[in-house]
Amino acid sequence: MTAAADGPAKVAVVTGGSRGLGRTVVERLLGQGWRVATFSRSSSAFTEDTAERWGDAFLWQAADLGEPQAMPEAVRAVVQRFGRIDLLVNNAGALHQELFLTTPAKRIDSLVTTNLTSPIVLTQACARAMTRTGGGAVVNVSSINAIRGHRGVAVYSAAKAGVDALTRSLARELGALNIRVNSVVPGFFDSEMTTQVTGSDRERIRRRTPLGRLGSAEEVADTVLYLASPGSSFITGQSIVVDGGITC
User: Fold this and answer.
1) Of 16, 62, 90, 137, which has the fewest CB atoms closer than 10 Å, so is most exposed?
2) CA of 91: how far to CAs of 20, 38, 62, 190, 242, in Å?
3) Biggest alpha carbon distance in the chain?
4) Strands of 179-186's sheet, edge to edge?
5) Which pTM does this prediction carry?
6) Known catalytic residue: 156?
7) Residues 6 or more apart whose Cβ sits within 8 Å of residue 146
8) What is the pLDDT of residues 125-163, one digit of tens each?
């Protein structure tokens, strides 16, 4: 079912929508009749081409998740443009691999800010907007690093585990306001974050994955879009793992 099928086009906010999974989600939502706003640190050929193709249905803004104080202003711009917010997809994140004992405090602060603090602040601003128009949905993109320990990503893993905890608490708190909150927990899929995985490591991951392969951004996006759809209207507070079975 498309947004248009329910009446006036609904509005989605997608962070990190200029590339990777975020770009896939933006394209899919626009194709389903949503109006979409996305944030990223800089524009790209994709955001420029999408603005030209979709016109008033698409809004790109420059916003850096490293600056949480910028999030409420970005949300105000979306509401000013579209009049409402029905969906937030907290997709953007930053992965840095380094042994915990050598990670500088400044890097720790940056990783927590980008992966947890800014999504919290953005979710608060979007949820406030949703309460004025009858509710909505929040989909947080987490990581299997939040549920399975891996060497060199302790801070990133802690922040993503925080996102899953936020999901459960907000589902309790916002449910009475008709706002559903869920998270998608991707495993290894082809993206910019996995381009540095060596051929031997890819083969090791493939062998350990019951389905025998890495996933795709489209497959993760399928779950994001399901959680944004009327088909998931009685699902909230859940973290859905999309990993080909590697954590089972």
Assistant:
1) 62
2) 10, 10, 15, 15, 15
3) 54
4) 58-62, 35-40, 11-15, 87-90, 136-141, 179-186, 239-242
5) 0.92
6) yes
7) 157, 160, 161, 163, 164, 185
8) 999 999 999 999 999 999 999 998 889 999 999 999 999
Length of the chain: 248
Query: Cα torsion at 78, 79, 84, 89 (round to 10°)?
Result: 30
b/e sequence 45-82, b meaning 16+ C-beta within 10 Å:
ebbeebeeebeebbbbbebbbeebebbeebbeebbeeb
| Amino acid making up residue 182 | N
**Phi first, then psi: what are they for 127, rounded to 5°?**
-65, -40
Identify residue 148 by its one-letter amino acid code: R
pLDDT tens digits along 24-81: 999 999 999 999 999 888 889 999 999 999 999 999 999 999 999 999 999 999 999 9
In 3D space, the residue among 116, 99, 221, 111 whose CA is nearest the CA of residue 160 turns out to be: 116
Catalytic residue among 156, 193, 221, 243: 156
Cα torsion angle, 207, 184, 191, 32, sign: positive
